Amino acid sequence: MNGSSAGPNRQLSAEAGEGEHELVDLTGLSDDEVLEVVGGEEEDSSSTVADRDLYPSRVVDDYWVFAYNLSGYVQPDTPRSGKWLIFVPFRLLDETWRIIKEDTEEGLLGVCSKAATARENPNAANRNVKVICVYTYDADDYDDVVRVRERLKFRNFVAPLNYKTDEATRVGQYAHTGATRISKYRM
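and the corresponding structure tokens:
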């Protein structure tokens, strides 16, 4: 991907003066040009990393931001991992990610989660919809897969969600390429 096409809703409230903000239209700018506009002066790297992790809609140089289970409970690695797929409109990406990130870090979901960013992804079927993946350690541990799904329902993700194994991803099974019956579970 050359990074030259603009993503959805590419506008940013930028600081114009003391306490003032102006809306900057990022439409038509390449990813590098967007980085120049939003980059500004170097800040404390800890706040930059924090902002990056909190606002995937502002990230244009990576496809994903990640959150990890910080609770101290670690599930074993297996070759059978998988993920719940939550598709959200771009305009709701940051708000939705905040919920998933918080629950992941508190150990209430799976081993980790990731959210698509503003960077256009060639595997995305619709550039106005982004995916958040909530990983479980073992797609065959049905109790754990259901536990994570129930927590997502508790957090108001009540519409049916698809669960895809990482093996399906590794072999390139995506709906936009014509693959069918990709999901292991739908709940």
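(Above: one complete record from the training split.) The helical segments are 31-39, 45-54, 93-105, 142-154, 166-170.
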